[in-house]
Amino acid sequence: MTDDVLTPDQIQAIRDRVAALMPQVRADLEALVRIPSVSAASFDQSHVARSAEAVAELLRGEGLEVEVVVEGGRPAVIGHIDGPEGAPTVTLYAHHDVQPPGDDADWDSTPFEPTERGGRLYGRGAADDKAGVLAHIAALRAHRGRLPVGVTVFVEGEEESGSPSLPAILAKHGDRLAADAIVIADSGNWAIGTPALTTTLRGGVRAVVRVQTLDHSVHSGMFGGAAPDAVTALVRLLATLHDDDGNVAVQGLDEGVAAELDYDEARFRAESGLLDGVDLIGSGSILSRLWTKPSLTTIGIDATSMAKASNTLSARAAAKVSMRIAPSQDPQKAFELLRAHLEQHAPWGAQVSVELTELGAGFAAQADGPIYDQARASFRDAWDVDPVDMGVGGSIPFISDFAARFPEAAILVTGVEDPDTRAHGANESLHLGEFARVCEAEAILLARLGAMDS
Length: 454
Ligand code: BES
Ligand code: MN
Description:
- With 454 residues, this protein is an alpha+beta fold.
- The protein folds into 2 domains: 8-201 and 363-451, 3-Layer(aba) Sandwich (Aminopeptidase), CATH 3.40.630; 204-274 and 284-360, Alpha-Beta Plaits, CATH 3.30.70.
- It contains 12 helices and 18 strands.
- The strands form 5 sheets. It has a 6-stranded mixed beta sheet with strand order 1-2-6-3-7-17, with helices on one face. A 4-stranded antiparallel beta sheet has the order 11-13-9-14. A 3-stranded antiparallel beta sheet has the order 4-5-18.
- The radius of gyration is 24 Å and the shape is elongated.
- The protein binds ligand BES and ligand 2.
């Protein structure tokens, strides 16, 4: 391309600088992973404070003016450094909190001790999303002392807990996050060797459904056969949430059509670990089932444990359900539809109550324009392969708040994850080769945006 904003030599020079920086970037990533910054309320929040401080130190090291802000929730880190006069500004987002590690026994190495095996770095947060934090640091380091754009870094501490204090943070500090482009490094790429921009995300609704059938628990020999127990009633109620094909049976929810990408059942089976003989559920293309149609999962049940079981009819039982909703779906309306469904399908007249616990909107990007062009070019530079537009089935609820607040900004959803990352699961890991590409692409993106004709 003769009219490209960077020459091939300039691009290669950035790639070389990033390659030289990767050992230190990796060491800094490992130090962050060693901090067990689980934002879930039942975990020690002092570690979240420590990880915020560690991120703040990394940013100060790159010459940013940094503040750790707390607005009633967990600490977020905001850093800023001016660019050349008249250059565009870019806000870089990631989160420093992580999901709970789950059972240590399910991991092949200790969750908070980063360990390399087979070109991947294992550890909770090694990908989601501490590598996102380090991708931003790497991009800053690649341009140390001659940053081509103004940069604001925003690293949140409670994304994995639904960003409860984000509205307060935006209300108080939002003006500092305004930018021409916002890079949200919390998603991933299409496959090893194929970069992607994430252009749609689903929203989510979480709710607790409680079922009560009896005033108190009673002997199952004396009353069983004529009185329903709450656990069985709950299970029957949950069973109404899908039709026989496994589609969500709640009526009235939005559905969209996913981008056309090659994705067959064999790949889905391999990536999801679906057992031989177990059917896929739902209908329509697999990608629309994952990205643009609703899904419903029972994520927890409170009922008498087997260890405490006796011959008793339970009076009460409850379940937490997580519903993913189409990018376009209004989440409050989705919750109302879910509640109505559960109330209307109460088996045997059981008392059913439904409580909303969390709700977040999906997102569909306006994925064109000059900034998107430069982002796609940066990916091509780093991978030597054209990027694809993809959706993801997961959620980053605050993106819609950002988009509403900064309607002119181009929102670029990038990230380090790949199909085998196992974010949130045991043996979460980062593909180190792809991580280097992500860092290169982001460093090149800053240079491209700085060199753009405004
Ligand atoms: N990084 C994920 C979002 C994501 C998921 C991106 C799948 C790409 C693929 C993010 O950290 C996350 O897990 N979000 C939560 C949000 C929830 C806690 C409100 C999610 O999707 O469950
Ligand atoms: Mn994440």
